[in-house]
Design a protein that fits this description.
mainly alpha
């Protein structure tokens, strides 16, 4: 959501961090890979030149930690949404999201607000599907 607001380099690093998140509990599933493709499409033409980076997750987190609050909130919200995209709960993903939240200095209140937005978007998509199917 709103990933097109990121600068080109931020988009590349976001996809790298997203990939680290979804692969932390093993190989990425087809659903997770589809989500990455969807988000890359949302980010626009910049992603046509994207090549997977080799920075460790700690360096990627550090990169975003130095960004403005808006960017950190946007990145965290989209990572949280991605972690909720599949039907499996992953403790490793949860711990990585906590690490990112702390590194980005996102308060519990802000985290809660961002998660509510993730669920609101998800609910709207499901409601739209139901209305269209009627």
């Amino acid at each position: 959501m709103l990933l097109n607001l990121l600068a080109k380099e931020e988009k590349y690093y976001f996809v790298d961090l997203l990939t680290r998140l979804i692969c932390i509990d093993g190989e990425a599933t087809t659903t997770e890979l589809s989500l990455v493709d969807k988000l890359k499409y949302e980010m626009g033409e910049d992603m046509s030149r994207y090549r997977k980076g080799n920075l460790p997750k700690e360096k990627l987190i550090e990169y975003f930690s130095a960004k403005p609050k808006t960017i950190k909130n946007l990145v965290f919200m989209n990572l949280a949404a991605a972690s909720l995209n599949d039907d499996w709960y992953s403790v490793e993903e949860h711990f990585l999201l906590e690490q990112i939240q702390q590194s980005f200095q996102i308060s519990e209140k802000k985290r809660s607000e961002l998660i509510k937005l993730v669920y609101a978007e998800r609910d709207l998509r499901e409601k739209t599907k139901r209305v269209l199917a009627e």
